[in-house]
Amino acid sequence: MEKNKVRFALEKYQLEDDAMWPPYGVETLWAEVLTPNRLRLLNSPFFAKGISYLDDIIVANNDGVFDFLEVAKRSGHGTVRALLRDDKQQAFAEHAVAATSKLGCSTEWGGAVASIDIPPSVNADLALEALVEARDRGAIYLEIGFLPES
């Protein structure tokens, strides 16, 4: 399987009434090459919105650098993120994220951000419910990267 990194341009926005997010202008994700301009994502994004794990995407190949253009085919996966908001509540935040694993979600941590993949077999509403208490207590920001239509 041939893999390449795909570059996603990110737009900054404000998290509720706090800091601007994301902290970067670009995110790169691994993808499997299907055709020269069509790839399949192999990661859940930490920052990019509108995409999820195993989505087929169309890219522009700029001298070996792949830039995301659009989603060609949805995988049925969803992506939500838990961003640690209060260091004193880190254990509570981690417990809430772990509850999504019990439902069948997978999580990848990147510093204070958890990217949670919701596979098609998991009810997205239940996964979100597992995180709501942590959000309501101020432990995390809860961000939806992409959820498929039910």
Structural description of this entry:
The structure is a single chain. The chain contains 2 helices and 11 strands. The chain is α+β, with helices and mostly antiparallel strands and 150 residues long. A 5-stranded mixed barrel has the order 1-4-5-6-7. Strand 9 (106-110) and strand 10 form a beta hairpin. Helix 1 (90-103) packs antiparallel against helix 2.
Keywords:
globular, 150 residues, five-stranded mixed β-barrel, alpha+beta, 44% strand
* SS field, number of helical segments: 2
Overall morphology: globular
Low-confidence stretches: none
Mean pLDDT comes to 94
Helix percent reads 10-25%
Class based on secondary structure composition and strand pairing: alpha+beta
What summary fits the major beta sheet? Answer: 5 strands, mixed, barrel
| H/E element sequence | EEEEEEEEHEEHE
Number of DSSP E strands: 11
Q: How is the largest sheet built, in terms of strand order?
A: 1-4-5-6-7
Give me a quick take on this structure.
With 150 residues, the chain is α+β, with helices and mostly antiparallel strands.
Helices, strands, pairings?
Layout: E1 3-9, E2 13-14, E3 20-21, E4 26-35, E5 38-41, E6 56-62, E7 65-73, E8 78-84, H1 90-103, E9 106-110, E10 113-118, H2 124-136, E11 140-146
